[in-house]
Design a protein that fits this description.
7-stranded mixed sheet
Length: about 200
């Protein structure tokens, strides 16, 4: 579930914003509910806008994974902008229920919701993805574990991208196996776009 702590920009990490707005695409300006769950921290608008500017040339028709889906902000944004398939993985049953309701309301046939622990899900056979969104709880060691599993289990297609969101207080992800192609920040949140070099 996202997130445990430290949202930044002066916002209490224990308070969810109530609703989030889809920024672009077919559902532009659509409001999505955000349940009041401890530590839930949707990706800020500024970072989502930067991220999808980075992905504008590859999001159309892409197969995407939002691994720590939480509010589903990244997954719904991807689907709104033309992703052909989006898998939302979330372990909190209450959040899963809300995600399923929103998929139904939007009649988003290209979206699937899965209730599962992220590491367990990555260890199951999956078709590879074009884009993976990784926004795990801050202050944990989940990010390096996820990146290792994505690489070792061939979860990403050649030329695919991995978006990583961390706290500035967390150690940046190791990039020996990954090529960093974009980076930005908003308050106390760091956003990085990674790509695995060909032949790795």
């Amino acid at each position: 579930m996202k997130k445990r702590s430290d949202r930044g920009r002066g916002i209490n990490p224990e308070k969810s914003p109530g609703r989030i707005r889809i920024i672009g695409g077919q559902w532009r300006s659509r409001q999505l509910p955000v349940p009041d769950r401890p530590g839930l921290r949707p990706t800020p608008d500024r970072l989502r806008e930067a991220l999808f500017n980075w992905l504008q040339d590859c999001i159309q028709g892409a197969r995407c994974l939002d691994l720590f889906a939480g509010s589903g902000a990244l997954g719904f944004e991807a689907a709104s902008r033309g992703a052909a398939g989006v898998v939302l993985v979330e372990r909190d049953p209450a959040l899963v229920h809300t995600l399923e309701e929103q998929v139904s309301v939007l009649q988003a046939a290209q979206m699937q919701v899965r209730c599962s622990d992220a590491l367990r899900w990555l260890n199951q056979p999956q078709d590879p993805f074009d884009i993976i969104f990784l926004d795990p709880p801050f202050g944990t060691d989940l990010l390096p574990q996820c990146l290792d599993l994505i690489a070792s289990n061939a979860m990403l297609r050649t030329g695919g991208r991995v978006y990583v969101e961390t706290s500035l207080n967390d150690v940046p992800p190791e990039t020996d196996q990954w090529m960093q192609i974009k980076q930005t920040r908003a308050g106390q949140v760091r956003a990085v776009l990674l790509q695995m070099p060909e032949g790795v």
